[in-house]
Amino acid sequence: MKKGILLSAFLLAAIPTTHAQGTGGQPAGCHIGNLGEQPAAAQKAMSSFLRGLQSQVAQGHKSQVADMIAYPLHAWISGKNQNVQSKREFLQLYDQIFTKPLTKLLPEQRPACISRVGAQGFSISRGEIWFDIHSDGSVKIFNVTPVVMSDEYRP
Predict the structure, then answer these.
(1) β-sheet bridge partners, residue 84
(2) pLDDT in tens, 30-75
């Protein structure tokens, strides 16, 4: 568990600096990403993945969101780091993983909000959702960790 906390702290420290709403045309909760510096194929894959995730979450398609997960999923649930081992377990814990603040933040993210953080993968906002391209070419979420958010995202 300490490794998970240390990894989360490391990943958060590596996130680019924040910008206020409207700065650089970024929506609230969006931090300047570096996706534009990545190869065109990665830009396309990550942009498509983000749009798909936003659509599935907005429509309440929990099973389709579960298909976008790499198991075991590392997630912050009920105040502690946990590994979600399967789609079935994810669906049981969905509302504890994709919390109201996270589902409110997600639609505001744009491809410009995506950051590649070294070999760790890609993230949105302040590192709430981490994902990467897998060996089969699919993009999957491997970590969902809430970050302390401004009052506008609190339930």
Answers:
(1) 73
(2) 666 777 778 788 889 999 999 999 999 999 999 999 999 999 999 9
**Positive or negative: CA dihedral 9, 12, 17, 22:** negative
Side by side, which strands form the sheet with 115-116? 80-84, 69-77, 139-144, 129-133, 122-124, 115-116
**Is the distance from CB of 31 to CB of 99 less than 8 angstroms?**
no
Residues 131 and 113 sit within 8 Å (Cβ to Cβ): no
Residues in the chain: 155
Q: What is the dihedral angle through the alpha carbons of 82, 4, 54, 15, rounded to the nearest 10 degrees?
A: 160
User: Quick check: 42 and 133 in contact, CB under 8 A?
Assistant: yes
User: pTM for this structure?
Assistant: 0.76
